[in-house]
User: Fold this.
Amino acid sequence: MPILDDAQAMYNADTKGMLKALWELPEQCARAWELGMAADVSPMDNLRQVVVTGLGGSAIGGDLLRVYATQRLDVPVVVNRDYVLPKFVGPYTLVFAVSYSGNTEETLSAYVQAREKGARIVVLTTGGKLGELAGNDGVPVITVPGGIAPRSATGYLFIPTLAVLYRMGLLPDLSHEVAECTSLLQSMREKLKPEVPRDSNQAKMLAANFHNRIPVIWGSSGTTEVVAQRWKGQINENAKAPAYWNVFPELNHNELVGFEFPGELLRRLYVVILRDPQDHPRVQKRFAITREIMEGEVAGVVEIMARGSGTLARMYSLVYIGDYASVYLAMLYGVDPGPVRVIDTLKARLAEE
Ligand code: PA5
Assistant:
């Protein structure tokens, strides 16, 4: 029986429980809001910037926040994926230091700098060295449950930041948005889960289209930009396969021009356009024209529309489909979606030095 039609075989091949974590994502989002609401934070005068510092699965929550907050916060949100914080970080900066393991060296370095610069810090982690340092420094720590892959903890590593910003008086109460997101994902999982056959499971159909091709994921400035990046990362880490992402309207000014050569490679690309009902009207026109220009050049183009009404639900509805598709793609390649040996090797070798 082909693997995508055999739910039990997929559960057996998934040694780290990525499918279980996906099933539990709706409840994770609800719990994440509660964790943020319970954090030991107080309002801050003269806030000038918010910085989220983290890597990989711990950084994407920063991008979700950046995109979410861009039309809602009066200050910019900057995501730092590096050892070094931007020069502007200082006493009027709120820094979220995020590391699921608590042991990622770039994040530890950035945390130490944030302390030296006198920034206000909130840590999100399961523990590790970051939890220990923050505990010793009296820095507020939001301790999130362990036992899953960092990239499966996107609710825990993002939604508490919304609650913290609400508690600091910088965002409105978003509990209704979190509730909508939770119930939307609860209904979506019934259609995306392994037991649902391929011809009625959108994530399985996507995985089949990605198989032996290179996925190219396009979003637009606004909610879907970060989701495109998320899909790419999930395909890389779960399916151990390449994928690329870009964003409208910028890609209309460069990437699209590059869809002429080499023809035999272009025909191995499968393009996904992630859409949101609130995309800028001119960008919506660009989707159709772009599709026309490139349709015959690549293996296929599909458009996927976000669901839900609130921004959070709309973003997570697309994240959820991509997360499931990346795990199904791992199954098609015969790899275990959970382990990320390359990252582990790199971290271990760097730790030896
Ligand atoms: O998904 C993963 O496993 C990685 O992208 C990690 O998130 C990344 O290596 C950073 O580790 P951590 O999230 O523990 O800080």
